[in-house]
Amino acid sequence: MTPVSSPRAQQHATRAAFFIPGFATAIWATLVPFAKARSGVDDATLGLILLGLGAGSLLAMPLAGVLAARLGCRTVMIATSALICLSLPWLAVASSPWALGAILFVFGAGVGAMDCTMNVQAVVVERESRRAMMSGFHAFYSIGGFVGAASTLLLGAWLPLLPAVLVGCAVMVLIALPALRHWRNERVAHEGPFLAWPRGIVLFISVLAFVAFLAEGTMLDWSALLLTDVRGVVPTLAGLGYAAFALSMTVARLFGDRVVDHLGRHRAIVLGGLLGAAGVLVLTLVTPWQASLVGYVMLGLGCANVVPALFSLAGNQTRMPEGVAITAVTTLGYAGVLAGPVLIGFAAHHVGLVGAFIGVAVAFLGVAVSPRWLKA
Predict the structure, then answer these.
(1) 272 falls within a domain
(2) Has this prediction a pTM greater than 0.70?
(3) Is the pLDDT confidence value at 2 over 50?
């Protein structure tokens, strides 16, 4: 039974749940260069090790959906928060490539399970509030990422690496402790399996989530290369593209719930798809490179509210149980983050990087016309 708490307390607790994996993932991102130097691996081997994070996440997400339905969100999110906090310090000290990969798998499992379960929690809290809240919840994942990266870099200037990471873990514990009593703990009772391949409207929503997450993964791994290889930007400035994308997406999500309330989820998806497609075309075709940064901003604005709206639709459809549906959307969406850079690299080999990015624009146009079939 969920402890008695106000709707506002549950909303704040849900924001805390989104903040924690974003914060933890950003800390790991700052550890990557140190982990590579400590383990003595080359770039190719590091790439294989980094697959552990994605593999752990993808395998844990379906299991998290099953456990959330059987045990309640609160139990699963407490366990996954603990798993994140316990594994993260080991990533700061592991020196063996095998140990690093194994710990990264465990850390990825914790982050992936938290990602899935917090969206189940968010759907319930949003539905009971009777207003759009999903964009704001997802904004706190991005805020967690920014704070985690900035604080780790600042602490690293004053403390050795491991103590700095331990401070980050303490922060996550302090955020989780007051929130956990307000995390939902209802168990879902329904006939049939708790884990199933998505079908009908849920499969369609999952494919759309794959496209939106694919764009995010593409920006993370290829936006800087587009600026350096196509626009001739010096490497020290190449990160401006992703910074513009991430910042605009975070700000748009903070205000996105008002947009969704005003337009409705379907129109918000149409607007996001059109903005995303236009943004990709601007960032690939417009010169000089300073002007092309507008495209990164447009793409961030386009991506911002599409994914939250899709999670809300998955949680409110009636074809499949909401826990099963959200698990499917989370898993296939995250697969888009992993597959996006690979697909872009494959396409760039055959049609060039600009052509590969234009393919992303076409995919976003597909998202823009999708709401006509998005009926629960």
Answers:
(1) yes
(2) yes
(3) no
